[in-house]
Structures are given as structure tokens and as C-alpha cells.
Specification:
- The complex is a heterodimer.
- Chain A is mostly helical.
- Helices cover 77% and strands 0% of the residues of chain A.
- In chain A, 39% of the residues are buried.
- The N and C termini of chain B lie far apart (75 Å).
- The chains are: A mainly alpha, B mainly alpha.
- The interface between A and B is large, with 59 and 49 residues.
Chain lengths: 321, 344
């Protein structure tokens, strides 16, 4: 019962957040001169009449509040509108882009969790050991490296040499899962490594710090005093409670990345939500921008709800209220 | 042991030279520990060398006779129009896609990148510290409003705003500095606010207030010095973050406008040439990585040096086998703004 009420309240606040985000985005981009969009649409040589006609057809000549009201009405009916440029429905564009972005995120998450948690736990159980020191430097290197530089270095150091030597399994671009598991993974492996390297650094640091804190708690001492094996103390008692901050960061990251892994998509030529949102913003394609921003925010909102609900599962001390 | 012997020993202790024990301030202790951290010292050296190289960029340009914008279409490009490699035709690190000297541009790039990193950190620190102090000290409605504002800024999709501003006003150095500052102060403000909340309850603050000190004096003269440690660590860690963000924004075409060389600009130009000119990516990337890594290592070093537990930890290590003594990482969280990771 408490859980149902929690869920309803969170969904309602979530909708409120989405409305606020949509409104802010709408007005933020309204300041972009209308003429520039119309001119781009109508072509360089368009006469003023043609431009005026384009503006009228898009409804951009109406007062901003009328436009905003119109926009909200469509949104309430689930209509995200149509691209200014090719008239494609925003929903269709999102449906095309989402699998690409999701492919990058899914593999990336698995990779960075395995590496980040593994190294983090080993460092925390052996603080100040050689392994811990090496991993700390590794973490700092990961944090010091812009994602796109890592991607470019991977292309120079891995993709180009392999392909020049007739090894064509690893590719850039995108192959949908329907073409088979192997081609899909071949196209995704470099983006996964790129995304996971930077993220693994964050997660190693987070899980190490959190586990070290947890292992200093009284109930861990009690568990050891009871004579439990060290393995059981660390993994059953320590890690479970130490995972709370990791899970909350994971929720934020997955939510944010599902809205578009901008840099990785850009480096590897994947036309997912990230790359297309950059393009939409560049061209002032307002319906597409708002659609993308709404999808991205919805993922963040949902991820946060899942994270809060999962606290109770992980940490027996937390009750949902 | 006879009574006279004890008296003699006591006299000897009293007569012992007093200067053996010396009062050391927190900063002196920190500096002493930092000096013994080889990694931190190396980082300081690297940072200083990078700053000197950045300052001397015009000297390199003069000696090589290669201006930062000067395109050598003859010597600087191969007959196929491809950049020439390191060491060819008097270009130590090779050339870029229009035949400009890569070394000279990378050195000039260091100026822009370091300037962006340091200036945004200074601005964000000033703003974050002031807002955090005010929110934490006054509390009540002021705190509620400021704290919600801080949360909102931390949650905002950073790249979207940067893209929007660049789309509306065109990319510029000013927008880059503005955007990075705007998204960096909130993290600092949140930590300063938290620290202020606990420090302001101390007795000496009450004493200052009873002596008639005003709120501004208490905030900036009595509370602030206590927070300088954490602020210094945060600021050191923000500089590399800002350098990375600048590079990323430039890569996305919404940062420093070309042809001004920043590391981000050079690397984003290089992305179409990595198949034929590895040096074009590798050298600027190395410069950037070495610099950001040095700042990150230094920040970590300062954090360890400020933590009194570090000393105990080393002592425990020397005794061997003490398993539970460990360094806590959670005290001063490393601050990459949400947007950085959000950018992928």
C-alpha cells in the first residue's frame, strides 16, 4: 500500500518535472530568430514572400503564448509534432534513434559495472596496496581523458590497424541486432569500450570510497566478531550496503545516457538520439529538440523512481515512505 | 633508583632544548606531507612546466618562424595535400590540415585551455563560496531558495544549454567560460554550505557574535578560513574538469571558434585526419592528458595531505597487518559536474 502511494506520488511529480522541462526548453529556443529558421528552410534565394509564407505555415507568426498553448495541447494528446525540415513525425525519429543509443548504453553499462565494481572492491579490501595505487592512477587517468580523445585514439590504435590488416570484424557505424549478434557487437565494441573506460573510473572511485566507509562500521566489526568468513563479511554485509550510492549514480547515468550519448555517437558516426539532437539544435528544429529533451528527461525521471524504489531492496535500514 | 637520581633526571628533562618541539600550523603540516608525496611534487613540476611552455609560445613561434595562424601550403603539406609528419621540413611535431605548425599551435592552445580552466575555476569558486556561505550562514528562507537553486543547476542538462546558447549567439570564448562557470559553482556552493552549517554552531563564532561582529565579518573572516582546505582541493580538481569540458565543447563545435587554437579545437579539426596523420591527434591529446592528469594527481595529493588520518594510515602500514585503518574517500567528493559524464 505504502509502495503504491509512493509510486503514484513520484509519477505525478515526474509529470510536473517533464512539463517544467518542456516549458523551459520551449522558451529557451524561442529566442532564436524565427527568420533564420525560415530562411534555412526556404533556401538562400527565397523571396521575402516565400519566407513569410514558411513562417505562417509553421505557425511561427502567432504570439508566443498562443504557440505555447497550442504546443501544450498537442503534448497532452501525445502529439510531439513534426520536424520543420522533412515533415517526419518526431515520434518516428525517436523510434529510429532510440535502439542505437540504447545499444551503446546497454553494453557500456555492463562493461563499466564489471570493471568499476571489480577494481573498486579489490582496492577497498586492500587499501594502499600496490593494486590500489595503480588503480588510483588509472582512475585519475580515466577522469583526465575527454571521451572523444579516447574514442579517436581507439580508432587510430585499434580500428585502423585491424582493418588495414584485413580484420574486419570491428566496425564503426551501426548494425541493428536484427542483422545478427556478431555484426551488432562488432559495430558496438569500440563505443562500449570508450563509454565504459571513462565511466569505470567514476564507478571504481565511488565503490572504493563507499565500501571503505562501510567496512569501518560497527556492524561489520560485529559480523567479524561472530566469526563469519571474510568473504561473507565483505560481500554479503559490506558490499550490499555500500552499493547504495553506486545504484543511485547508476540510475542517474543510465537515465541521462539513454537520452543520447552525445560524444560517443558523434565520434563513431552513430545517428542516435545524441547526434541527432546536436543536429536539431544546430538547425533550430524546435519540435525535434523538445521531443528529444522530453524523452531524455522522462528517462531521468523514471530512472530516479526505480533507484529510490530499489534502495529498500538493497539496504534493510531503508523503508519507503 | 634513588631519589637524587630521579631529581637529576627531572632536571635534565627541564633543561632539554625547548625548540625541539615546534608549533606548526595546519598549512605547514599539509605542505610538509605534500612535499613527501612524490606524485604530487611531480605534478606540480609538470603543471609549472606546462605554464612556462604556454607563456613561451611566442618564443617558439619566433624561433621556428611559424606563426600560430600561418599556413605553409608548400612545405607544410605533402604533394597530396596531407599534413607532413614530425620532423619534416622543420616542423618538430608535424603540421595540421592546412600546413600550420602543430607544435606552435599546441603551445598556443595550452594558453587558451589553461586560461579557460583556471579562469572558470576562479570565477566558479568565488561564486560558489559566496553563495554557499550566505545560504549556510543565514539559513531560513534565504537558504531554502538558494539550496533549491543549487539543486536545479546541478540537475540541468548541461550540454543542452551550451548547445542552445551556441546556436543562438554563435560559439565564443565568452560563452564557453560562462557556461562552464555556471555549471561549476553549484557543486562548490553545496559543499561550502554544508561546512558553513556545521562551523557556524561553534563556540568561537558565538564569541565573535557576542563581541559585536557583523554577519559579513563572521562569514568571511571567521568562517571562511576554516573552509579553505576543502575549497582548495575542490578548485584543484575543477581545473582539469574545466579543461576537459572546454575540449569537449570545442569538439562538438560549440566551444572556442576556429582558427583560435585550443586543445579542443585542434583535436576536433584532427578528427578527419586521424587515418593519415596520427601525430595530429596524438600530440595535442598527450598535452591535454598530461596536464589534466597532473592537476588531478595534485588535487588527490593535497586531499591526502590535509587529511590527518593519512599520517595514521602510513604509521599503521609500517606496523603491518592493521586491516581496518583506511583512508576515507567520501570526505571531499571529486566533483565532475553531472553534465560532464552526461555528455558521454
Amino acid at each position: 500500500m505504502a509502495f503504491t502511494r509512493f509510486l503514484i506520488r513520484r509519477i505525478l511529480t515526474g509529470i510536473l518535472v517533464l512539463w517544467a522541462v518542456a516549458t523551459v526548453t520551449f522558451f529557451l529556443f524561442f529566442f532564436r530568430p524565427v527568420d533564420a529558421v525560415a530562411r534555412q528552410l526556404a533556401g538562400r534565394a527565397a523571396s521575402p514572400q516565400v519566407i513569410a509564407e514558411v513562417i505562417r505555415r509553421l505557425g511561427l507568426d502567432q504570439p508566443i503564448l498562443v504557440q505555447y498553448w497550442h504546443f501544450l495541447g498537442n503534448l497532452a494528446r501525445g502529439d510531439l509534432g513534426y520536424s520543420y525540415y522533412n515533415g517526419e513525425s518526431v515520434k518516428t525519429i525517436i523510434a529510429q534513434d532510440l535502439p542505437i543509443t540504447a545499444s551503446v548504453v546497454v553494453g557500456g553499462v555492463v562493461l563499466w559495472l564489471v570493471v568499476g565494481l571489480g577494481v573498486g572492491v579489490l582496492s577497498a579490501t586492500h587499501p594502499r596496496s600496490t593494486f590500489d595505487r595503480v588503480s588510483t592512477v588509472g582512475v585519475l587517468t580515466g577522469l583526465s581523458m575527454p571521451t572523444f580523445v579516447l574514442g579517436e585514439l581507439l580508432i587510430i590504435g585499434v580500428f585502423v590497424p585491424l582493418n588495414q590488416n584485413g580484420f574486419s570484424w570491428i566496425q564503426t557505424g551501426y548494425a541493428p541486432l536484427s542483422e545478427g549478434l556478431i555484426p551488432w557487437m562488432g559495430h558496438m565494441i569500440l563505443p562500449w569500450i570508450t563509454l565504459a573506460t571513462v565511466q569505470a573510473a567514476v564507478y571504481t572511485r565511488l565503490s572504493r570510497g563507499s565500501l571503505i566507509d562501510t567496512l569501518g562500521e560497527d556492524y561489520i566489526r560485529t559480523a567479524r566478531a561472530k566469526g563469519l568468513s571474510e568473504r561473507r563479511v565483505v560481500y554479503r554485509h559490506g558490499l550490499r550496503a555500500a552499493l547504495t550510492p553506486v545504484v543511485s549514480q547508476l540510475g542517474i547515468d543510465v537515465g541521462a545516457f539513454l537520452g543520447g550519448v552525445i560524444v560517443v555517437e558523434q565520434v563513431f558516426g552513430l545517428s542516435g538520439l545524441g547526434q541527432d539532437s546536436v543536429q536539431a539544435i544546430d538547425t533550430g528544429n524546435l519540435p525535434v529538440i523538445i521531443g528529444f529533451v522530453l524523452v531524455a528527461s522522462a528517462f531521468v525521471v523514471v530512472a530516479n523512481i526505480i533507484v529510490d524504489a530499489s534502495y529498500a531492496l538493497l539496504d534493510p535500514r531503508v523503508r519507503i515512505s | 633508583m634513588s631519589v637524587t637520581e630521579v631529581q637529576f633526571q627531572a632536571a635534565a628533562v627541564e633543561a632539554a632544548p625547548v625548540e625541539a618541539i615546534q608549533g606548526r600550523s595546519q598549512w605547514q603540516l599539509t605542505w610538509r606531507r605534500l612535499r613527501h608525496d612524490r606524485m604530487a611534487v611531480a605534478s606540480i613540476v609538470v603543471i609549472l612546466v606546462m605554464c612556462v611552455l604556454a607563456l613561451l609560445a611566442p618564443l617558439f613561434a619566433a624561433v621556428l618562424h611559424h606563426g600560430q595562424y600561418q599556413a605553409f601550403t608548400g612545405a607544410g603539406l605533402s604533394s597530396a595535400g596531407i599534413p607532413v609528419g614530425p620532423g619534416t621540413h622543420g616542423f618538430p611535431l608535424g603540421t595540421d590540415y592546412v600546413g600550420r605548425d602543430l607544435l606552435v599551435r599546441t603551445l598556443y592552445g595550452a594558453r587558451i585551455s589553461l586560461f579557460v580552466g583556471i579562469s572558470t575555476t576562479v570565477l566558479a569558486t568565488i561564486a560558489g563560496v559566496s553563495i554557499g556561505l550566505v545560504a549556510g550562514y543565514f539559513g531560513g528562507a534565504i537558504d531554502t531558495v538558494l539550496a533549491r537553486f543549487i539543486d536545479a543547476v546541478l540537475a540541468f542538462p548541461f550540454i543542452v544549454l551550451a548547445l542552445a546558447l551556441a546556436a543562438i549567439y554563435g560559439p565564443s570564448l565568452l560563452i564557453v567560460i560562462g557556461v562552464i562557470t555556471f555549471f561549476s559553482w553549484a557543486g562548490i556552493a553545496r559543499i561550502v554550505r554544508g561546512q558553513t552549517l556545521s562551523v557556524k554552531e561553534k563556540e568561537y563564532i558565538e564569541a565573535a557574535r557576542s563581541l559585536g561582529a557583523g554577519p559579513w565579518r563572521i562569514m568571511f573572516i571567521d568562517i571562511l578560513p576554516n573552509l579553505l582546505g576543502p575549497i582548495l582541493v575542490l578548485a584543484t580538481l575543477y581545473i582539469p574538469t574545466a579543461v576537459v569540458i572546454e575540449a569537449t565543447l570545442s569538439f562538438l563545435g560549440i566551444g572556442i571558434p576556429a582558427p583560435t587554437p585550443s586543445w579542443g579545437v585542434i583535436l576536433s579539426e584532427a578528427q578527419n585526419y586521424y587515418q593519415v596523420a596520427w601525430w595530429y591527434v596524438v600530440f595535442p591529446a598527450l598535452a591535454l592528458l598530461i596536464t589534466t592528469l597532473a592537476f588531478n594527481l595534485l588535487g588527490d595529493g593535497i586531499r591526502d595531505a590535509m587529511d590527518p588520518r593519512t599520517e595514521r594510515l602510513f604509521a599503521a602500514r609500517r606496523k603491518r597487518g592493521k586491516r581496518d585503518v583506511a583512508l576515507k574517500d567520501g570526505e571531499l567528493p571529486n566533483p565532475p559536474p553531472a553534465g560532464v559524464t552526461g555528455a558521454g
